Amino acid sequence: DRWRTELSGRGLTVALADGEDERVIRAAIALHTESIVDVRVFGDGTRISRQAQALGLTLPVGLIADVTETSGDPVIRSALETAHANKPEALPSALADPICVASAALKTGQVDACVAGAARPTADVLRAGLRIVGLASGVRTLSSCFLLLLSDGRQLTFSDCAVVPDPESEQLADIALDAAKTHHSLTGDTPKVAMLSF
């Protein structure tokens, strides 16, 4: 409930990049119905609509971000062209890829956050994020983390080294510091860090 209260009314827009996945469609409808955040479901608009119909659901108008239409936006296209300047042969695939198009929407400020990977490998999500969005200022090591909200109210952030399978000590320190910063920004709590491996 705390997260619902904090997010509601802030006008945040979240891209859901696995738009044809049943879980994503259901999540988009729930988020929209509860007015927690605005959502845009990225993918093939026709397929998303058909999938919703097959589930007996209706996605409200404006929630579907068809990748063909969205990638035609000059701002989105420019972000994708810039990201693929050294590999222009990959641009046509990027223009049709919901994760890449949603990442470009994030890069250009058209959405505030992007959730991806429900139906795609983590490697696809990381590549798009790194190539299109890039690392935050001051970040040297790409890493990931997730926040667990426990039934007793505790909030724990776990960072994982899968992105860098054999990290050096400096990279481990970067990963720990970045996880702590993320924990603080999400929860407002002062982080306490424990190294559980290596």
Features:
alpha/beta, globular, about 45% helix, about 200 residues, four-stranded parallel beta sheet
Report the helical percentage: 40-55%
Per DSSP E runs of 2 or more residues, the count of β-strands stands at 6
Cα-atom Rg, whole angstroms?
18 Å
Order of helices and strands: HEHEHEHHHHEHEEH
Mean pLDDT comes to 90
Number of helical stretches of at least 4 residues: 9
**What percent of residues are in strands?**
5-15%
Which word captures the global form?
Answer: globular
Main beta-sheet annotation: 4 strands, parallel
Structural class: alpha/beta
First-to-last CA distance: 36 Å
Strand order of the largest sheet: 3-2-1-4
In terms of per-residue confidence, which ranges show pLDDT below 50 for 5 or more consecutive residues? Answer: none
Write structural notes for this entry:
The chain is an alpha/beta fold and 198 residues long. The chain contains 9 helices and 6 strands; from the N terminus they run αβαβαβααααβαββα. The chain has a 4-stranded parallel sheet, with helices on both faces. A two-stranded antiparallel ribbon has the order 5-6. The radius of gyration is 18 Å and the shape is globular. The protein starts with a helix and ends in an 11-residue tail after the last helix. The model has no long low-confidence stretch (mean pLDDT 90).
SSE blueprint and pairings:
Elements: H1 2-7, E1 13-16, H2 22-33, E2 38-43, H3 45-54, E3 64-66, H4 67-70, H5 74-83, H6 91-96, H7 98-107, E4 113-115, H8 122-133, E5 144-149, E6 155-160, H9 169-187
Parallel strand pairs: 1-2, 1-4, 2-3
Antiparallel strand pairs: 5-6
Helix pairs in contact: 5-7, 7-8
